[in-house]
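Entry 14. Structure prediction run on the chain below.
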Amino acid sequence: MTMQRRDLPPIGMSDLPEEGTRTQVAALCWRLEDGKPKVLLVTSRETGRWVLPKGWPERGTAAHRDAAREAWEEAGVRGEASSECLGFYAYQKVLGADKGIPCVVAVYPLEVSGLKDSYPEAGERRRKWFSPAKAAEKVAEPELKALLAAFDPTGR
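Output returned:
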C-alpha cells in the first residue's frame, strides 16, 4: 500500500483554546479473510453509530502509536499501526445536548494481529468486521466513507 506521510503534532483538548478545530487520531483496523480485506468498526458510546476507534493524541507520543492505543482501549485490538497517515476526515464531536467542537481526524492503518475479549471499553461498545465497501456505507462522515471505500491493503 502506498501512502503519503502526513504526521500531525500531538494536540489534545487541554492544549487548545476554547474555540477552534481539534485534532484526533484514528486506527483503521484491518485484516485479510480469505485474501480479502476486512475492516473493524466500533460503536460510539454516545450515539451507538459505527466509527473507527479514535481519540486525542498525547504530547510526546507518535500519532500512529496513539491510534494503536485507541484501538486497544475501544476495540481490544492488538497489532502494528503504520506510521504513514492514510488520510483525514472531519466531524463534529458532540459534547452535551447543545455543544459540539469541530475535529479533524488523522487515520492510521493498523494490521490486526489479535483481538482480546477483555479491554478497557468492552462493556461500552460493540465491534464488527465489514468489507471496506460495507464499512463505508455504515459511517456518516463523507471523507471517511471515501477512505474506507478506497482502502485496499493488498494494492490490487
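The CA atoms of residues 4 and 84 lie 6 Å apart.
Filed with the rest of this week's runs.
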